[in-house]
Every structure is written in structure tokens, then in C-alpha cells.
Design a protein that fits this description.
Structural class: alpha/beta
Number of domains: 1
Bound molecules: 1,3,4-trihydroxy-5-OXO-cyclohexanecarboxylic acid
Helix content: 25-40%
Order of helices and strands: EHHEHEHEEH
Mean pLDDT: 98
Strand order of the largest sheet: 2-1-3-4-5
CATH architecture: 3-Layer(aba) Sandwich
Number of strands: 5
Number of helices: 5
CATH class: Alpha Beta
Distance between the termini: 9 Å
Length: about 140
């Protein structure tokens, strides 16, 4: 089973970026965490990060026929991108939304998630653990 994990803008700055909200662990730490979690679940994962909305849309489109499911943290594009929502709906792969922080208790503009409308489930505010739970969920539904 092959899962694509997509991380959106500024998540490459983890560790440096607002550590009080996102913690001190780096993006490299997140990649290691995801790979270890996937290995423990016997899943194959590819991780992709981009600061560009169109690149994320392209990657979702390319996933069709190559991956069995998608884990996505669209970061700020969560709250703005109908293009990412449409791409997820377009390919129709089972998708899971993840956010490190609890977007429901932050600024009001973070309460809308367009991408989430195309996702089967969301793991919010659990830090890195949300990615593990997302992989676990996909393994269950894909079996
Ligand atoms: C985030 C939450 C978003 O609101 C924010 O723009 C991010 C990260 C999270 O993982 O908590 O960049 O998606």
C-alpha cells in the first residue's frame, strides 16, 4: 500500500517557525517520524512539501493511479484553496487531513478547512502523532 504525504507552505520551517505553536522539532524530524510510523504499519510512503499551491495541485493529480491514499496538511492553503479541494475530489483517492496545531481554537480565519471537505477524517492538534493516526486510518480503510 502506497501513501502520499503532502505538507504545504512553511512546514519546511518546523523547529524555527513559531515554536510555541508548532514545537521545536524540525521538518527533517517530521519526515523521520512519518517514515518510522509507516514502516511500523507496513506502508510505503512518499513525502512531498511545497510552498506553492499549483505544485500541490499537480502532485495530487499525479497521485492518481500511483498511490492508494493521501495524507495532507495543506497548512495555510487549508483555509483558502478551493483548487486543492477540487484536486482531492478530482482524483477521488481516500484522503486524510492533518494539522499539527488545533485550528479550531486559533484565529477565526483558521476555522474553515476547504481541503477537509474532501477528506474522510481529520486529525487536528495532535502534533506529529496526527500523521501516524492518519496512516493508521488509511491502512484500515484500504485493507
Ligand atoms: C497548520 C495550521 C494552519 O492554519 C497553518 O497555516 C499552518 C500549519 C498546522 O499544521 O497546524 O501552516 O496546518
Amino acid at each position: 500500500m502506497k501513501i502520499l504525504v503532502i505538507n504545504g507552505p512553511n512546514l519546511n520551517l518546523l523547529g524555527l517557525r513559531e515554536p510555541a505553536i508548532y514545537g521545536r522539532r524540525s521538518y527533517a524530524d517530521l519526515l523521520e517520524f512519518i517514515q518510522k510510523s509507516a514502516a511500523a504499519l507496513d506502508l510505503e510512503v512518499e513525502c512531498f512539501q511545497s510552498n506553492h499551491e499549483g505544485a500541490i495541485v499537480d502532485k495530487i493529480q499525479e497521485a492518481y493511479g500511483k498511490f492508494d491514499g493521501i495524507v495532507i496538511n495543506p497548512a495555510a492553503y487549508t483555509h483558502t484553496s478551493i483548487a486543492i479541494l477540487d484536486a482531492l475530489k478530482g482524483v477521488g483517492l481516500p484522503a486524510v487531513e492533518v494539522h499539527l496545531s488545533d485550528i479550531s481554537t486559533r484565529e477565526s480565519f483558521r476555522r474553515i478547512s476547504y481541503a477537509g471537505l474532501a477528506c474522510e477524517i481529520s486529525y487536528i492538534g495532535l502534533g506529529f502523532e496526527g500523521y501516524r493516526k492518519a496512516l493508521e486510518y488509511l491502512k484500515k480503510v484500504l485493507l
